[in-house]
Amino acid sequence: MAASGAGEGEKAPAGSSLHSKTLLKSETLYQYILESTVFPREPDCLRELRLATAGHPMAGMAASPDEVQLFGLLIEMLGAKNAIEVGVFTGYSLLATALALPEDGKIVAIDVTRESYDQIGSPVIEKAGVAHKIDFRVGLALPVLDQLVAEEGSNGRFDFAFVDADKVNFLNYHERLLQLVRVGGLIAYDNTLWGGTVAAGPGDEALSERDRTLAAVTKEFNAAIASDRRVHVCQLAIADGLTLCRRVA
Q1: What is the DSSP letter of 139?
Q2: How many CA atoms lie within 13 A of 224 on its CB side?
Q3: Burial class of residue 130, CB neighbours in 10 A (0-12, 13-18, 19+)
């Protein structure tokens, strides 16, 4: 149940980037979007985890509030029952997915560590009453996905997947997820505009070497997805760039 007016007018904790994760040129406009549309409809438990995550030194790793609101809507529209999340962190987006799934829905959550999840997210998720929907698998994502592909009945079983993990493996994840997600299902990839650096020129001295490398990897992924006829694709300028792929073959 949404808290009435939850989050309206609240300020992000100092040093947090969770509440300013946007490509919009106007920070004021982004705050208006959050305060007028996102926070008033936000469940109390999701608000609690959002604020707890915002206090983490690596808060920018989390999905943005408007992004997780979109996921909830998409999952409901899909009538999704089974989901995959690659990259969990505190479990903020994981909780949003769990809340949108039916009571008997299931999420396979994959991360190399449970540390931030156990410390920050798990208590809130337990209190929200949706922990039974989560199948947390610790390990590198590719081996875990390969194991999932090999499990009987897994291929085509999933309705929705969200990937927010190491960018260099996005195409590898894509190949596995196309086996696991059903035709008509949806795969969402985060950070696919990498802070707008994908549009930077080769001589842009303001970019760090890391950003140059990840921008190049991201551009390669975007080009591959755009030419992949197994999916219908939509690139959204939400958060740090979000690519939606609907499997059609």
Answers
A1: S
A2: 15
A3: buried
Residue ranges of the chain with pLDDT lower than 50? 1-16
Q: Torsion over CA of 83, 137, 19 and 120, rounded to 10 degrees? A: 130
Per DSSP bridges, beta strands 242-247 and 231-236 are antiparallel
DSSP class of 240? T
Cβ neighbours of 29 (radius 10 Å)? 11
Residue 239: which of 1, 7, 90, 33 has the closest Cα? Answer: 33
Angle at 150 between CA 94 and CA 122, to 5 degrees: 20
What is the pLDDT at residue 13? 32
Helix (H, G, I), strand (E, B) or coil at 67: helix
The CA angle 25-30-31, to the nearest 5 degrees, is 135
Among 34, 49, 4, 82, residue whose Cα is nearest residue 239: 34
pLDDT of residue 4: 33
Selection from 195, 194, 171 nearest residue 245 by Cα: 171
Quote the CA–CA distance of 6 and 129 in Å, as a whole number: 20
- Taking alpha carbons only, the member of 135, 148, 140, 187 closest to residue 168 is 140
pLDDT at 2: 35
**Residue 188 CB-half CA count within 13 A:** 27
Strand, helix or coil for residue 111: strand
